[in-house]
Design goal:
Helices cover 21% and strands 38% of the residues. It has 123 residues and is an alpha+beta fold. It has a five-stranded mixed barrel with strand order 1-2-3-7-6. The longest helix has 20 residues, at 2-21. It is globular, with a radius of gyration of 18 Å.
Length: 123
């Protein structure tokens, strides 16, 4: 009986540790850092462009300059962190600076396409 109780307690601690970890920054460098150039609420994705000063730059300007750009799909499994608070897709706004970690591979179109696993809103 004690073994079962100990196993149950260990399981509870492991599960509690897994849920608490979702609001912490990942252990690796972000895959993308840039400004949210576009928020597509219908398909639940954001377009992040690196190395631009503001989002008033035209699409053609950063496209022709070859800036890093990627669409990131936001799913129910994506954690969005805003100043230490876990939030949702509605917190993502055009012009915000973000760090993005993705899962899987990025489609090598331009802009690239992938699925975000963690988004950290910087400003």
């Amino acid at each position: 009986m004690k073994k079962i109780l100990v196993l149950c307690l260990i399981t509870i601690f492991i599960l509690a540790g897994c849920t608490a970890a979702s609001d912490k920054l990942p252990d690796r460098d972000p895959d993308a850092i840039g400004l949210i150039y576009e928020v597509d609420a219908e398909s639940q994705r954001i377009l992040v462009v690196s190395d631009i000063e503001n989002v008033d730059i035209s699409y053609e300007e950063w496209f022709e300059a070859g800036k890093y750009a990627a669409f990131f799909k936001v799913t129910k499994d994506t954690t969005i962190n805003d100043d230490g608070t876990v939030t949702d897709f509605s917190s993502l706004k055009k012009g915000q600076k973000v760090e993005v970690w993705h899962t899987g591979v990025l489609a090598e179109s331009y802009p690239m396409q992938g699925e975000a696993v963690y988004i950290n809103i910087i400003e």
